[in-house]
Amino acid sequence: MAGVPVASGSADPIARVFETPAVGQRVRLRGWLQRSRSSGGILFLLLRDRTGFVQATAKRDVIGDAKFTEAEHIQVEGSLRLSGTVAEDRRAPGGREVRVDEIEVIDAGLPFPIFQEQTEEFLLDKRHLAIRSADHVATFRVKAELLRSMRRFLDQEEVLEVTPPIITGNPAEGGAEAFTFDYFGHPGYLSQSAQLYLEALLFPHERVYSLTPSFRAEKSRTTRHITEFMHLEVELAWCDLPELMSFIERMIVDCLHDVAAKRPKELEALGRPPAELAALAAPFPRLTYAEALERLQKVGFPVQWGSDLGTAEERALTLEERSPIFLTHFPRELKAFYMLRSSSDERTVEAADLLAPEGYGEIVGASARETKVDLLVERLRAMGADPSEYEWYLDTRRHGSIPHAGFGVGVERILRWVLRREHIRETTPFPRTPSRHTP
Ligand code: 4AD
Ligand code: MG
User: Fold this and answer.
1) Whose C-alpha lies nearest to ligand 1, atom 18?
2) What is the pLDDT of residue 220?
3) Alpha-carbon distance 10 to 59, whole Å?
4) CB of 298 within 8 A of CB of 346?
5) Are the C-beta atoms of residues 96 and 87 closer than 8 Å to each other?
6) Nearest-CA neighbor of 113 among 133, 95, 94?
7) Which terminus has fewer CB within 10 Å in the chain: N or C?
8) What is the pTM of this model?
9) Exposure string (b/e) for 10-47, b if CB count within 10 Å is 16 or more?
């Protein structure tokens, strides 16, 4: 904004104040005001930067009347720079404070509109400001750590990162929930899943993954659906369902152990003791769809073969669990056209959903893929799709078709469970839901 001085010079991260040798040293800090109070000629400023918080005390007789008055008028989230000496002070957060001798207001700011007791709607309208809150900061640090960890794991497993398109000419997961638009006079669809492209890329690379946004025009307002989510998808050649499930559980366990080790403070602050993640171990329990029906019927659910297992059913199956569980071998009609028919039971497909414990629901969708063109065409027709639109995909089965399998992880779904968030929108900075695509 106009009048903001150009940033110049170096500064110390706030975290330096709390390093062992810092006491008695002079530091130069910059950041945003968390809160302040003035009493008896002393101004107490709680300053934040990306590395933490520190209390700074500024005395009127040290910095002078004019600077003191100017500093008193900095609003919450106003920006400033200061220099001073680090001192021990038991009353200060973290046991140390900075005794200020120089202060420069960068932008005193207008009164910050975010307080404690505001409605969800207001906070969503002001999301661009609300994301400065401690909960959001912790959430997106954990999210970054999880993404980093998943990429590291996949790299170790020699799975190649590829970049599939977002603009597509045919829906991957069924037309009903695809966002459609006019692409220069042709129907265009925002990607619901990169899978079909990953399957094509698998032939030259054998093991591929992508991390892209996926879009679902789901009108359902639930606490686990957003219309744009981050989708980590993996496709592995020469792989069947049991091998795929063991890959998935190794990845989840490895990555969540890593997140627990690297972000314990953030996890703790958000209500997930890191020890709970560190205790996760493979293999996860496995339950067939048929076994799940039996379990549900015993506790009074009116489900039978062919019933879709929704939020309530998933919740009932996992409420008492501490570990995620795999649900496998669903009836063919409930699942996508590309899933491989089970050879042991023609009614079912070689698919697995991974359900998070504690009732958080599906976090991974996985399957072995159908390799035969005629069976794919049959399933596309049954779905009401036009197989000619999928010619390019069917081609992949005409030139060296091989057994393969893959899965998709909803990054925000995992986080909702890991961070015990009531609503999935808290796991993404700018959530998109049927009622909101702004800010
Ligand atoms: O189960 P889904 O629909 O499977 C696929 O899209 C496969 N093509 C993936 C693959 O095999 N490559 O979606 C995969 C995961 C779900 O398990 C869920 O975690 C997440 O994506 N997901 C959503 N997350 C948030 N909001 C939504 N509306 C979601 N829909 C799916
Ligand atoms: Mg699914």
Assistant:
1) 410
2) 79
3) 24
4) no
5) yes
6) 133
7) N
8) 0.95
9) ebbebebbbeeebeeeebebbbbbbebeeeeeebbbbb
Q: How many angstroms separate the CA atoms of 84 and 331, rounded? A: 68
Ligand 2 centroid – CA 166 distance (Å): 19
CA distance 143 to 337: 32
The atom number, within ligand 1, closest to the CA of 231 reads: 21
Residue 394: Cβ within 10 Å count: 15
Residues in the chain: 439
Distance 353 CA to ligand 2 centre (A): 6
Model confidence at 2, pLDDT cuts 50, 70, 90, reads: very low
Tell me the average pLDDT across 260-266: 98
The residue contributing the CA closest to ligand 1 atom 1 is: 365
Which H or E run contains 154? helix 134-156
Integer Cα distance of 271 and 259 in angstroms: 14
CA–CA dist 216, 197 (Å, integer): 18
Instruction: Name all residues whose Cβ lies below 6 A of ligand 1.
Output: 172-173, 193, 195, 216, 218, 225-226, 229, 231, 233, 362-366, 406-410, 412-413
Protein residues within 5 Å, CB atom, of ion ligand 2: 365
Report which bound ligand comes closest to the CA of 218: 1
User: 396-427, pLDDT tens digit by residue?
Assistant: 999 999 999 999 999 999 999 999 999 999 99
Domains of the chain plus CATH, in order, are 14-107 (2.40.50.140), 123-427 (3.30.930.10)
Closest to 328 (Cα-Cα) out of 303, 307, 348, 312? 348
